[in-house]
Specification:
alpha+beta, Beta-lactamase, Serine Threonine Protein Phosphatase 5, Tetratricopeptide repeat, 2 domains, eight-stranded antiparallel sheet, three-stranded antiparallel sheet, 20 helices, 48% helix
């Protein structure tokens, strides 16, 4: 009897200890959930995040939630099953299709563009490889960098071959393989290659080879005219609030940016990438190999690769990630593959810093205190402009930056946002010039300040000042064909 009591006591103690451990682990997990929710609410308040988030720790979902409105006009809330346009997150699916065809021996990474697209010009297509297209080193100009793309091209529907010939076949900006230059034309061409090799439309190949096998039932090619349940409306977030984003024909982003998905489906995608469900490991390793320096790290096939330090530690963790931006949306999938953590952020009002959000969420997962967002200085100054004038707002900026530099967000894009709002919404050209000159003084090395300032001077009909500022922008961002074209156009009108 005494022995049985001792055994019972030991088992009871073990059980109690196990219950305590489970409760502590659960409490810690719940604390992380509460912290993530608090952080996201701050990003919603201060940066206008309007979307959904999913967080997985060690492969298990610990948090998913929507913030803001999927449709502002009907007061429909975002939920985890809301469908968003992905923008350039599409590229990783295009690269997977290409690698599947490589695995099947139907494509070679060193094969030439003109080998697979018989209608492509031979003089340049014979120099560009599939590898060049995958890592943005083809030298072919990106169609989205054309100065007239959004104004004159983006609303028109094109067939794939027609668009390739008209907008993805220009002369080289540099010799193939010479350097990295982010390029939507390259991924459009990869989509065209997929169609030529498979004999099927790009979207059909995606469905058959990726979405159906994985059960990604809420992912596909977005068509404007299709009735789609739970589709998010895309917005621009201005200083006056939301406005509907401009129309974009989805035949144009194509294999570079036309997919839609949900945070839940992207979690399925993430888990599949740790397996051989879609591709043998030897080719997965090639796909995720850091091929070329880019974005402070390296670019693989449709993914950015970085080694990041964890806050409060010298440890480095491998991140495989990619963002996307398209009219009315910005997105991010951030895979911390060392520990199989995942952050997915889908936003239907571009402007919020998704990279900072993801870093803050991962800090929470590692038990660190995240850096929290702070209020935009543009929002504060805009209220001063409305109540008083631009001159008072300029004085306020200098005073606040001197006395409260950590209380507000003074990044260079803030005053550009205010300056462009004054220029385009309020038609206050002089006020815009004053604000943008203030930004040039505060951030003299930020090229896009001078682009906006040049545009303001063009509206003021001061073409000599516009040329001067375009030239300054080009000096700070050499090789930018969009700025160069703007400079040449201003010079022609002088």
């Amino acid at each position: 009897m005494e022995r049985n009591l001792r055994v019972f006591s030991v088992r009871a103690a073990v059980l109690i200890a196990l219950i305590v451990f489970i409760f502590q682990a659960w409490s810690f997990s719940q604390d992380k959930v509460a912290q993530i929710d608090e952080l996201m609410k701050l990003y919603q308040e201060y940066e206008g995040f309007n979307g959904t988030v999913l967080v997985a720790e060690s492969g298990k979902v610990i948090f998913k939630k929507g913030y803001g409105m999927a449709n502002v006009e009907w007061n429909i809330l975002h939920k985890p099953d809301t469908k968003f346009r992905l923008g350039s997150v599409t590229k990783q699916f295009t690269s997977m299709l290409i690698m599947q065809l490589v695995n099947e021996g139907k494509i070679s990474l060193e094969g030439k563009l003109s080998d697979y697209l018989p209608y492509y010009r031979k003089d340049t297509g014979g120099k560009v490889t599939v590898h060049h297209l995958l890592v943005h080193s083809s030298g072919i100009p990106s169609y989205t960098n054309k100065p007239n793309f959004f104004q004159d091209i983006s609303r028109d529907r094109y067939g794939v071959e027609e668009f390739v010939k008209k907008h993805c076949s220009d002369d080289f900006e540099f010799e193939p393989g010479e350097k990295f230059s982010y390029n939507n034309s390259g991924y459009f061409l990869l989509g065209a290659i997929i169609e030529e090799i498979t004999g099927k439309p790009y979207e059909e190949a995606l469905k058959e080879r990726i979405f159906d096998p994985l059960g990604m039932t809420s992912t596909g090619y977005d068509h404007h005219d299709t009735i789609m349940p739970h589709r998010a409306t895309g917005y621009n977030l201005t200083l006056d609030g939301f406005e509907n984003a401009p129309y974009l024909d989805m035949s144009l982003p194509y294999a570079a940016g036309s997919l839609y998905s949900t945070v839940e489906d992207l979690y399925i995608w993430d888990r599949a990438l740790y397996t051989e469900k879609l591709l043998p490991n030897k080719w997965i390793e090639v796909m995720f190999q850091p091929h070329i320096k880019a974005f402070g790290g390296h670019y693989a096939y449709g993914w950015s690769i970085t080694e990041r330090k964890i806050t409060g530690s010298e440890d480095k963790k491998r991140h495989i990630s990619h963002g996307g931006g398209i009219n009315g949306f910005n997105t991010l999938i951030d895979r911390q593959v060392t520990d199989q953590h995942l952050v997915v952020l889908l936003n239907s009002a571009p402007g919020a810093s998704l990279g900072n959000m993801s870093k803050g969420i991962l800090d929470i997962i590692y038990g660190q205190t995240p850096k929290k967002p702070i209020q935009s200085i543009a929002d504060v100054l805009y209220q001063t402009v409305l109540k008083k004038d631009v001159k008072t707002a300029v004085a306020q900026y200098d005073d606040m930056k001197d006395k409260r530099p950590k209380d507000y967000n003074f990044r260079p894009t803030e005053l550009i946002k205010l300056g462009n709002h004054l220029l385009n919404k309020m038609k206050d050209v002089d006020g815009a010039i004053e604000i943008l000159n203030l930004n040039a003084k505060a951030h003299p090395k930020f090229a896009y300040t001078y682009v906006s300032l040049a545009e303001a001077y063009m509206k003021k009909d001061k073409k000599n000042m516009a040329i001067k500022n375009y030239a300054k922008a080009l000096e700070l961002n050499p090789g930018n064909t969009m700025i160069l074209d703007m400079l040449n156009k201003a010079a022609e009108e002088e």
